[in-house]
Design a protein that fits this description.
Layout lengths: L3 H6 L2 E4 L12 H13 L4 E4 L11 H15 L4 E5 L5 H14 L3 E5 L8 H13 L5 E5 L1 H4 L5 H7 L5 E6 L4 H10 L3 E4 L5 H7 L3 E4 L2 H16 L3 H10 L1 H9 L3 H11 L17 H13 L6
Parallel strand pairs: 1-2, 1-8, 2-3, 3-4, 4-5, 5-6, 6-7, 7-8
Length: 300
């Protein structure tokens, strides 16, 4: 793909969990190992400090450290997109500037949660962040977490900003996405793993995936198959990853399941998550481990 968004962010992005030591500190070696694993297995973009990265628990100093380690480990082979959105515009602007200084390639900006401003407030918030650096911006529309959806009119208005190029759509509303794609320059990334295939077929430029932490190569095959119009192969890939997708997105919160899977695969050494998240129960862990054991690498 040669669209502005593909050049800015990539197409096969992984929402990366943040490796932590048992004392809840950042695991520098684990971060480096994980980034290298993701790039080696097929992703061309990595979102750090997003929801799966436990962004609400990361300090600004930790955000900077995480970005610096990811940029160094990726070594130019994948774009590093930093989650900087909060429900405080001033804090978000500051985080955006810190991310730019740390070497991030792009910014992910979530709808202001809890505060729930008007749509005019959402436009002002996102525009202020986009104005604060020269980095390209991907919006993040995830109303089931934030309690606030971006309306189509808001997304179309924000698409007029020269640095707001894309949206990670976790609404699950494909007809709405198609309508916006038909009337604006904003490019869509699917933010709901179970809908990656239909979103791509409907015109999404790429995905931002939780399950990609484990199956980035399969996700790359899925994207390539849809891109070339080979829907038979795309459906085959999709069928092969359904169990893994369901387990990593449903057994427990994504940071919990992805870290557990990555420990099982030998990529990181600790599945520690920060409170209020908790380690997987025996039943939750069993679902994840069964999915890994049953997984057959897809081919397209």
């Amino acid at each position: 793909m040669t669209t502005p968004s593909a050049r800015a962010f990539g197409t096969n992005l992984v929402a990366m969990p943040t490796p932590m030591n048992s004392d809840f500190s950042l695991d520098d070696a684990g971060i480096t190992s994980l980034v290298k694993h993701l790039v080696d297995t097929g992703c061309d973009g990595i979102v750090v400090a997003g929801t799966t990265g436990e962004s609400p628990t990361l300090s600004e100093d930790e955000l900077v450290r995480l970005i610096e380690l990811a940029v160094a480990a990726a070594a130019g082979r994948a774009k590093i997109v930093a989650g900087v959105g909060t429900n405080d515009t001033v804090s978000s602007v500051r985080r955006a500037r810190l991310a730019a200084h740390a070497g991030a390639d792009g910014l992910l900006v979530v709808t202001p949660y809890y505060s729930r401003p008007t749509q005019t407030g959402v436009v002002s918030h996102c525009s202020a962040i986009a104005d604060s650096t020269d980095l390209p911006v991907m919006l993040y529309d995830v109303p089931h977490r934030t309690g606030l959806a971006m309306t189509p009119a808001t997304l179309i208005e924000l698409a007029g900003h020269p640095r707001i190029l894309a949206v990670k759509d976790a609404t699950g509303d494909i007809p709405r996405a198609m309508a916006i794609m038909a009337t604006s320059t904003l490019e869509f990334y699917c933010g709901s793993d179970e809908l990656n295939l239909p979103f791509l077929a409907a015109g999404a430029i790429g995905i931002v995936s939780v399950v990609g932490a484990v199956i980035a190569a399969d996700e790359a095959r899925l994207i390539a198959a849809v891109r070339t119009g080979d829907l038979v192969s795309a459906r085959s890939v999709n069928a092969a990853i359904i169990e893994t997708t369901a387990a990593l997105n449903g057994a427990a919160p994504a940071p919990v399941t992805t870290k557990l899977a990555l420990v099982e695969l030998g990529v990181i050494t600790s599945a520690t998550v920060r409170p209020p998240l908790e380690q997987a129960t025996g039943a939750e862990a069993a679902l994840v481990l069964a999915a890994l054991e049953n997984r057959v690498p897809a081919s397209a």
